[in-house]
């Protein structure tokens, strides 16, 4: 098992994408509203766009016609190429019914040690 320091914890913020590396592989890092740190593979599972150029936001939800609510700010990653959106909570596409698509973000187990964000592989 090898520890990789991906970035500094104080570089992170909710809604901000921080690029990092695990060895020679690009990853992106963000802080979730819960305070948890998310380290994600740097390429989109659709056609490989560099996710560091994407955007983190929220999504809209509605149970009632003509009413819409903005929710989950900081938990949704939008790809810069075709606009597919993925949950930073579980890596799945956020389109309803898409849970079984073979297209999830790769999420790495990350820990914060002092001011370092660390992934052990
Ligand atoms: S490459 Fe990301 S949505 Fe197509």
Give a quick set of tags describing it:
Rieske Iron-sulfur Protein; 45% strand; 4-stranded antiparallel β-sheet; binds FE2/S2 (inorganic) cluster; 121 residues; mainly beta; 10 strands; 3-stranded antiparallel β-sheet
- Structural class comes to mainly beta
Give me the side-by-side strand order of the main sheet. 2-3-4-8
User: What assembly state would you assign to the polypeptide chains in this entry?
Assistant: single chain
CATH topology (level 3) name? Rieske Iron-sulfur Protein
Shape: globular
The domain count comes to 1
CATH superfamily: Rieske [2Fe-2S] iron-sulphur domain
Q: What is the overall pLDDT average?
A: 94
Report on the biggest sheet: 4 strands, antiparallel
Q: What helical percentage do the residues reach?
A: under 10%
Which series of helices and strands comes N to C?
A: EEEEEEEEEE
Q: Any idea what the radius of gyration is? A: 15 Å
Question: Which ranges are low-confidence, i.e. pLDDT below 50, for 5 or more consecutive residues?
Answer: none
Total helical elements: 0
| Bound ligands | FE2/S2 (inorganic) cluster
CATH class, named Mainly Beta
Q: What is the strand content?
A: 35-45%
**Ends apart, CA distance between termini:** 5 Å
Written description of the protein model:
With about 120 residues, this protein is an all-beta fold. The chain has a single domain, classed as 3-layer Sandwich (Rieske Iron-sulfur Protein). Helices cover about 0% and strands about 45% of the residues. It is built from no helices and 10 strands. The strands form 3 sheets. It has a 4-stranded antiparallel beta sheet with strand order 2-3-4-8, with no helix packed on it. Strands 1-10-9 form a 3-stranded antiparallel beta sheet, with no helix packed on it. It is globular. It binds FE2/S2 (inorganic) cluster. FE2/S2 (inorganic) cluster binds near residues 47, 48, 79 and 81.
